[in-house]
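Our consortium's second objective concerns turning raw sequence data into structural hypotheses that experimental partners can test. To show how far this objective has progressed, the report includes one record in full. It was chosen at random from the queue rather than selected for favorable results. The single chain below, 224 residues long, was entered without modification.
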Amino acid sequence: MPEKEIGKPLGIFGGTFDPVHFGHLRLAEEAADALGLAGVRWIPAGQPAQKKSPKVGAPQRLEMVRLAIDGNPRFELDAAEVDAAQTSYTVPTLERLRQADVCGTQRSLVLLVGADAFAGIGSWHRWEKLIELAHIAIAYRPGYPVDTASLSPALASLFRDRFCTDSLMLAESPAGRIATFAMTQLDISATRIRTLLSKGHSTRYLLPDVLVDHIQAHHFYSEI
């Protein structure tokens, strides 16, 4: 049976999520609105390729994402990278999604990244293939759009060649374009949260209450 193209694009949001917090959740929520996404598929990494070993194991990080996104009908969880129990790379992940029994080749996929992550994308495994497999949407701080002068020559050229000013264009093809969107600036980081937890300090209002309670019950990140 031939594949059918689905109208609205699907956002793809991968990361270590060690732990997932309101900054992650707000990025995904605002991306869905700004880009007209059908939803966002969250894909926690099994073993991140470019970071030190996470403080919490992959199954535990997967469960924290599940708890955090529960109840939001626009969010869905993809456990395949965690189940694979191996190093996660974005291009192979997108290639998996492009399989006929997952998203197929015609579904518009939009890889969601922050501006800092995009600036470093040239160091990613087979990064040149990303744009062939998905669109890329870059979240930036209001008033500070992507500055091509700060990018490597290859990345700046890609940005200029593939940039689209109308996010509605993302639905017109499966991959190949770059869009940007401003998101509410939340000065929250997983590193800061882990530091607070290691000292026994409160993390309330930095991540959902269900995660505050879950982390406390399991003594994640505690070093005291």
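The partners drew two points from this record. The beta strands are 10-15, 39-44, 47-48, 75-77, 87-88, 109-114, 135-140, 178-182. Residues 1-5 have pLDDT under 50 and may be disordered. Both points have been shared with the crystallography group to help prioritize constructs.
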